[in-house]
Every structure is written in structure tokens, then in C-alpha cells.
Amino acid sequence: MKKIMFNYIYTGIAGLMVVFATSCTGDLDTDPRVEQTIDNILDEDPDAYKGMLAKIYSAFILTGQETSGQTDVVAPDAGASSYIRNYWNFQELTTDEALNRWGDGGLDALNRLNWTAGNNFVRILYDRIYLEVAMANNFLRETQGIEDEEIQDFRNEARFLRALAYWHAIDMFGNVPFVTENDPVGNFEPPRYTREALFNYVENELLEIIPLMKDPGTNEYARADRVAAWMLISKLYLNAEVYIGEPRYSEALTYLDNIVRESGYSLEPDYQNLFLADNDNSREIILPLASDGLRSQSYGGTTYIIHAGISNSTMNPSDFGVNGGWEGNRTTSAFVDLFGNLETNGDRRALFHTEGHIKENTDYTAFNNGYAIAKFKNITASGDMGSDTSGEFVDTDFPLFRLADAYLMYAEAVVRGGTGGDLSTALDLVNQLRERAYGDTSGNIGSAALTLDFILDERGRELYWEGHRRTDLIRFGKFTGNTYLWPWKGATLGGSAVESFRTLLPIPLTDLGVNSNLVQNPGY
Hints:
The chain is mostly helical. It has helices at about 5-10, 40-45, 50-60, 85-90, 110, 120-140, 150-170, 195-210, 225-240, 240-245, 250-260, 300-310, 335, 405-415, 425-440, 450-465, 470-475, 510, and strands spanning about 100, 175, 190-195, 285-290, 330, 350-355, 370-375, 400. Helix 8 packs antiparallel against helix 9 (about 225-240) and helix 14 runs antiparallel to helix 16 (about 450-465). The chain is globular.
């Protein structure tokens, strides 16, 4: 059982819950609806501020104050409303790394890359992003002027979490409403920020808070420190050419070099251990979204990733530490091909379940069409099941940021021509990952092999099912068009070209109807 902020999620904050109707930007900046004043709550429980911060953290993975009851955003199914579950779906199901067989409520459109502005999952992801922004804004409003050192640390983290949510908005939606703690409380229409304007805001926020964040490794587990902020600004800069049409690889390398040399984080010796029920022991994970099978139960997060990737007929759920499979997600033949011949390739990251499955995805409504992914498990490194002995909810933390990603980002920024790094370091970092994968130097590469195509493939092999693939394919120019095809891209078995406007999601119709400042993204 993890000793983290879960103790504060359900205590001291019941009256501080933010309750939202279906996406309405006029309500994005309202105070929480409470029965008590915040002063009364704080008088009764001095830890309520920590509870408020815990709520902002937990809302990335939990759905509300109950496991499957009332959710923080309007959704037909509580479990399907989780922030990271929806973020994962859009980062993975829209790519070669995953297919979902359910097809319910508009999920099939992600497989086929043909969603509309009325898609329910587009709306839920958008609502989740803005719930995070609203809760962070409210926390900053309520703590303004408090000089206490711990509260100042909390404020810096709240600003970081808001920047994280806004980065997701930049990446997914582009041109969106903008609101901070300085805007008036009540019904108003937030202004529309262009992608470039929001990029500039997030950049400036991060530059301001980076020196204020806690030193590397000094914060409580699953809370952001300065290294997490270095990672976030590095990701912003690495994708700048997509976001604002301007390469910022040298700026990315400034912070990636800090991570590589000064973070104190280190590679986990055993790759599989990064995705187990006790992965909180790893010094590689820079920022996890923490799960606890007893104290933070939801059907989102890694509970979703593990259950939905298992078949009761072809797999043994107990091998994964859970009580059953939902037969939802597995991978495509195109992704399997990144590992070459599975019989002869010694890459231990190829964690596929093949028995009872075929490689091809001819009928993606049949779960055995496509190999299952056996990467995430609710089992500890010593083979014990997670803390929820029923097998329903998992302890496995979701590795939002980890060191291996920074290594590959460093290599990419160098190959793309960024200054401040060097090719020999980039090659060494990549080969450190490959030595872990192969158990020796047999998988190492030379400098001539360190190309952009290789780096994209290596990111797939190292980071699959961790919520990176859509952003990566867009950055490498392979998400739309016909440069790279995979099964069911463009709604055809062999894959077909997809329109370029699909690199952005549409602004949900529910928000366009209530905010006259908004303009729909092109193509929708």
C-alpha cells in the first residue's frame, strides 16, 4: 500500500468538490458548490489544502469521489470518464499500437480515425482537461497571499498540473478557451487562445516555476518535482515545430541535459518491473499517476489498461493479478513488425501474448485478431498480487514521465540538429536502453544507424502503451497521409491515407454552442 496523498483525497475535501455540468465554458471558472465556506473547512481541518491539491493530482486517474457512482464530468459510464483512460485511448487507439474491439459510444471512430465534433469521447477528454484547469485555478485563488512555505510548494505544483493539462490541450485540440485564477468568477465566455498563444503561456509558466519546484527527488512520491517540470518543458519544446511551426530542439536539450546529468533518476535494471504492482520502487519513473487497489479505486488508469488487454479465453487473468479480462484492446500486426521476428529477436521488451491469437487484424471485433500486450500487470516483482485481493482494482502506477523517454528525446533532439547536446552521448543513451532490452550489447547500434526513423521505431519499442504514440507519429509526419499505414487506419484493413486535419481533435459541439469566442478547428 503506497504512502502517498491518497489519505487526503477523501478527507477534508468533500465540500470542496468541483461540480460541472456538461462542458460549458461559461462555468469553467466558477467556484466549487459547497455547503460550507472554505474558511470553515480549513478551521476544522488544516490539512484541507493538501486535500485540495490531492484532488487535482487524483483527478488525472480517478473519476470522482466514488468508484462507479457520480463522476466529476458528465459521462454515460463512470469508468469510461477517467482522464488518463481517455488520454490513453486517443494516444493509442488512433495509432498502430492498439485496436479496441468494443466500438461503443464512438470508440470505434478512434480505430478508424474518423471521429466527429459530436464524438462523446472527444467531449469527455476535453471536459477532463478543463476540469483540471478549473481545479488548479480555484486552488490558486484560495491560497493567494498565503506565505506559508508548504502552501507555496503546493501552489507551484498546482501551476505545474495546470500547465500539464494545458499542454494536453495544445497537443490534442490546439486552439482552445483560456482561463486562469485571475479571471472573474461566474458565468463568462473565456477568450480563445491560438495554439501559439497557449504555447507561449505554458512556456512562460514553466520557466517561472522550474526554479521554484522542489529539488530532484525531495518531494513526496507521485508528486511533481523540478525534474517533472524539466520533462514537461522538454516535451513542449520537442513538439514546438508541430505546435508553432518553429523548431526549439536546442531549448529542449537544455532541460534534457539536466535530466540526464542532474536528476538523480536512474534506469530500472529490469524493463518489466516498470509496469508491475510495486513499480513505485523504481527510480526511473519521474512522475507516476499513482494507483492503489484499496484506496484509489476507479475503472480508469491502469485498471483499465490491464483488464481491457486480457481475454478470459486465451489468457489467464490471475497471471496479471486481476479477476478477469474485458477483451478490449490489443495491438496491430504493423506494431509487432517493429520487433522483427519474435522467435529470433532477443528484445525482451516484446511483451506479447500470442497463444490463441493470430497476428493479423482482419476482424478487429474479434479479440484474438491481433496479439495481446502483456506489459502491464497487477503483480509485484516477487510474484505477489496487488493489495486488492478481489483482483478488481490494481496497484500498478501509470508512468507518465520516465527517464528512458528523456534519453530518447535527447537523442532525437540531437539528430534533429539541436545544439547543446552531442551525438556520442545520444548514442550512449540509446544503447543503454538497448542493453537493458537485450541483456547484453548484441542489440547496440552504431552512430550511422541513429536516424530519425530508427528513433521513432525505438520509441515504439520502448514506450508502447504508455500514451506517447499519437504525438510521436504526428511529430515524425506519419500520423496522417499515406507515408505510414497500419491496419484500419482510414477505416480500411490495409490502411489508407487520413486527412491532415486529423492531427487536431475538434472542439466539442457542447462548447461551441455556449462560447461565441470559439472557432471550430479546420476540417470539422
